[in-house]
Amino acid sequence: MQTTYTFKRFSVLTLVLLAQLSWGQTVLLNASYDVSREFYKDVNAAFITHYKKATGKDIRIDQAHGGSSAQARAVNDGLDADVVTMNTSTDIDFLAANGVVAKDWTKRFPYNASPTSSTMLFLVRDKNPKGIKDWDDLIRPGIQVVVVNPKTGGNGRMAYLAAWGQVRKRGGTDAQAADYVAKLYKNVPVLAKGGRDATTIFLQRNLGDVLITFESEVVSVDREFGAGKVDAVYPSASIVAENPVAVVERTVAKKGTQDAAKAYLNFLYSDEAQEIAAQHAIRPANPAILKKYASTFKPIALFNVEDYFGSFSEAQKVHFNDGGQFDRLYSVK
After folding, report:
1. The CATH number of the domain covering residues in 117-241+300-329
2. 3-class DSSP state for residue 144?
3. How much is the pTM?
C-alpha cells in the first residue's frame, strides 16, 4: 500500500512540476518532411536562443516528420501543427484549398514563401561500383534504383519530375520522357514511404545500387551512418526543389500562437538560419550566403517545375493524381 501511495504522490508532484515548468512557455509544432530532421534540430536550437533574446520569453519547438504528403494529410485531418515546412508546394496548396493555411500563403513570406531549396542527385555505394554517372545509367539492365513513392512524399515527386524533366532539358519530347520514366521505374524494386525510409532501405537493408534523393541527404548520411558509406553523383541536369513554408492558420487561431509561428518562419530567412541551411547542404535563398558556400553546391544544370510542367498544381493533376501518368507508367511489384 505504501508503495502505491508513494508512486501516486510522486506522479502528482511530477505533473505539478511539469506544469510549472511549461507555464508561460509557448510550444510550437512544426510538421515537416522526412529528411529535414537534422536541419531543424539545429535551427530550433538557434531560434530558441534568438526568441529569448528578442522577447525575453521561453519557447519550445516540437517536430513531426514523415513523407510530406502524409504530413499534409495529417495536418488536414487534425494534427495541431502551428507551421508546416514542406518540400513541394502541392502539399501546402492542398492545405490552402481546405482552409487550413491562408489562400495566399506564397505571399506571406519572401521568395514565394520558400526560404531554402534543394535539388535531386544520386547516392551510390562507396567508390561507385556500378559506375553510375548520369540519368541514362539508371535504366541500364540490372541496376536497382531506390526512390520514394511520389504518392506519399515530395521527395518522390521531385525525383519523378527530375527524371522526366532532364529528358526535356536535353531536347527530348514528353513521349520520350514518358518512355524514360517507365524504364526507370521498372528498375525500382520497392517504393519508399519517405526520404528517410528510402535512405534506410538503401543503407540498412542494403537494397539497391543507387538512391535518388535530395542533395542535403549526403550530409545526413555522413552524420548518421558515418563518412565513406556513399558517394554523391551529380547528374548533368536536375530540378530546383523549393522548400515552402506556411503558418497553419487553423491551429494558431486556436492556440494563440500566430506571432510566435510567424517569428519562427521569418527566422528561417535570417543570416543565421541561412548559414545553418548551407551547412546541411540545403540551398539558402539568400544569394550572398549561397555564393559563400559555392564549394558545397556543385555546378549542375537546373530547371524549374514551370519549365516543363506548367506548375506544381498542373504536375500534380497530370502525373500524381489517381489515374495519372505515374499510375499508368508504374506497376506495383
Report:
1. 3.40.190.10
2. coil
3. 0.83
